Amino acid sequence: MSITFTINDNKNFIDNNCPELIHREVYSCQCVDFSENGEVHPTCSLCDGIGSVAYEEYPFEVNIANANARTLINALGLTFDYCGEIDPRTILKAVKRTPAALIEREGYESHNEGEPHMIAFGIHEDQAQSYLDRLAYIAQEAEKREERIYWS
C-alpha cells in the first residue's frame, strides 16, 4: 500500500489550467507481454483489447510507500495518520528544519524459521532528500493556490 500527498483538487486544477504538465506514458499491456505469440487478448480487462495501457502522472503529487510515509511524517515532527490534511506553510517549515539523515532507515532481510522471508529496503539519503524536495515543491504550489495539502 502507499500514501499519495497532493494539493486539494489538484487533478481538476491541472486539467483546467495547465494540462501540458501532465506526463503520459504508454506501455504495452501484460496481455501482450505474457502471451505466447505476442498478440492482444481481445477481452483483457486492463487494456480492453487494444494492447496498450496509458498512465498519467500529474505534477504536485507524490506517492510513497506506507512505511516510508510514516517515517517521513514522523521525522518532520508531525503526527502520522493514513489520511489527513495540513497547511502548506507547516510542511515548508518542517522540511526546512529536517535533515535528510533523519529520514534514512537501514534496510534488512529476515530469514526467521517459520516466518515469511522479509526484505525491507530502507530509505537511503538520496531517497530521503527526494521526499523532502518533492514535499516542498507540493507545498510551495499549494501556498500559491491558497490550498491545503492532503494525503490518503
Q: Kindly state the percentage of residues in helix.
A: 25-40%
Spatial arrangement of strands, main beta sheet: 4-1-8-5
Number of strands: 8
Q: In angstroms, what is the radius of gyration?
A: 19 Å
Query: Could you spell the SSE succession in H and E letters?
Result: EHEHEEHEHEEHE
Description:
By secondary structure, the chain is of the alpha+beta class. It has a domain at 2-8 and 64-151. Helix content is 35%, strand content 23%. The chain is built from 5 helices and 8 strands. The protein has helices at residues 10-17, 30-33, 66-75, 88-97, 125-145, and strands at residues 2-7, 23-28, 52-57, 61-65, 84-86, 108-110, 118-120, 149-151. The strands form 3 sheets. The chain has a 4-stranded antiparallel sheet with strand order 4-1-8-5. It has a two-stranded antiparallel ribbon with strand order 2-3. Helix 4 (88-97) runs antiparallel to helix 5. The radius of gyration is 19 Å and the shape is flat. The mean pLDDT is 92.
Q: How is this fold's topology laid out?
A:
Layout: E1 2-7, H1 10-17, E2 23-28, H2 30-33, E3 52-57, E4 61-65, H3 66-75, E5 84-86, H4 88-97, E6 108-110, E7 118-120, H5 125-145, E8 149-151
Antiparallel strand pairs: 1-4, 1-8, 2-3, 5-8, 6-7
Helix pairs in contact: 4-5
Features:
152 residues; alpha+beta; two-stranded antiparallel sheet; 4-stranded antiparallel beta sheet; flat; 5 helices; 8 strands
Short structural summary:
By secondary structure, the chain is an alpha+beta fold.
